[in-house]
Design goal:
The protein has 450 residues and is an alpha/beta fold. Helices cover 37% and strands 17% of the residues. The protein has a 7-stranded mixed β-sheet, sandwiched between helices. Strands 10-13-14-15-16-17 form a 6-stranded parallel β-sheet. Strands 2-9 form a two-stranded antiparallel ribbon. Bound molecules: cobalamin (B12) and iron/sulfur cluster.
Amino acid sequence: MRILLIKPETVGIFSFTNLVDHEPLELEYLYTMFRSMGCKAVIYDRRYDLTSLKRKLRQTRPHIVCITGYITQQELMIRYCDVIKDFDSRIKVILGGSNVELNYGNYFRSRADYLYHLSGLSNLAELVRRIGKGAPVDDIKGICYRKDGKWKVNPKVIESPASLPVPDRTYFYRNKDRFRYLCFRPLALVKNSFSCPRQCSFCFCTNRNSGRYACRSVESLVDEIASLKVPAIHITDDDFLISREYLTEFVRLIRERGIHKKFLIYGRADFIAHNEDIIKELASIGLSLVMVGLESPDNDELDSYNKHTTSDDNLECVRILHENGIYCAGLFIVHQGMTKADFRRLYRWIADKDIIPTVSVFTPMQGSAMYGGYEDKLLTKDVTKQDLFHCILPPEHMSLRSFTLQYYKLSLKLAWKNRHSGLYKDNQYFRSSLFIIKVLLVKLKRLFSF
Ligand code: B12
Ligand code: SF4
């Protein structure tokens, strides 16, 4: 069986930068699994491959097309289904990925055949086997399928990432110079867990895998890291800093195996604040950057997000990371209740600390716990605006335009302040400008040849 695997083009602000780019690890997983089943799989990464979809279909003549995507790419995924079905209605189309997992209902209006709403892949293998045999699929857990013209939703199962195959990185090595996080390059992604044990109310990720956290064994994680021929690894776990025991064993094994790499992770401020000894050990084996949700300097606001951290934790976290030579990539939220004075206060709080910040706009993302409470207040239902860079709730103390202006002013002032950071040392402004022109030309081309 021939299977085409599609990763959509980047949508929104991320499409204009080549400073942060990652391998299509989800498709590499699918590729690995399908190859092990004897299928011929082809990765079609539309972020770089400018071949039109119709041409790709002619070249690969797939029996099945699998499409991944995030929330901002939802409408693109639906549009691909139309192109594929118009090309050949016999091709079976399967949609999956983070957004389909929680928001599969959004795709009922698509012409897809199956929606895969799980984090793991075992049931996908079964689905493809049944499609190959023309057998019924109604007992396969974690899928939506059509019966008598109506969508049926089969129940989910709770899974563990231990069941994932070791990804075949042929695609990665062929293109590895593209993949980076600022000065960390080439950079590989490693997926080690599903979901998160905490329940911050704005968080989408925690509701994946039916809200149940599961991670791989330390041995299998270290084996995969050891096998990667790259200097930098981004562990994609939504929170890697969960268990002292796990991390102690991780440090021990990395040392024992003589692995010398730089690690980028996500972690929580309270863990860092209360486990300075572990952070020191992690720094000694290569921990270089932690993306940490500091969200706000204000305790009431942290409580309103069900964050279970305090502003003292935040301060302590920034100190510990700094003293251990680890970049603190602090993630902050600005919200619709802020005044201009609040924006200034936030700038001052961040600016005099060792933080490389990313400021997001408070977004009740569909799939997060808080979405229901805000659904009827949203200024727009356009999913491309759920990218954390748009204000989608009415600001309380200023117009939408002023809020947007305040937000961009804050982000630009912070970026300017940090322009000499080592993180940006590889940034070539001329190349970046050329890249923006290239992106605009590609967007133009796609208007005519999608
Ligand atoms: C790294 C990352 C990025 C990278 C890009 C990574 C990449 N490979 O393209 C960067 C930094 C560029 C990025 C950007 C954005 N991201 Co991001 N990102 C992540 C992160 C941390 C890891 C994603 C990853 O690569 N995981 C590894 C793969 C293997 O795991 P997976 O995607 O979960 O896939 C599994 C299953 O879903 C399944 N699967 C996946 N696809 C398919 C397809 C089919 C057909 C099937 C059957 C199965 C299947 O297979 C995998 C096996 O376990 C996640 C958070 C997380 N921990 O998941 C957020 C996350 C995916 N991002 C998110 C968002 C919102 C964005 C942005 C829109 C906005 C923003 N400000 O970040 C932009 C959009 C960029 C774009 N593409 O247009 C959201 C998506 C929410 C949603 N509803 O879709 C997440 C979940 C984080 C969050 N805030 O909640 N992101
Ligand atoms: S924001 Fe971070 S800590 Fe909170 S639930 Fe989400 S992944 Fe977990």
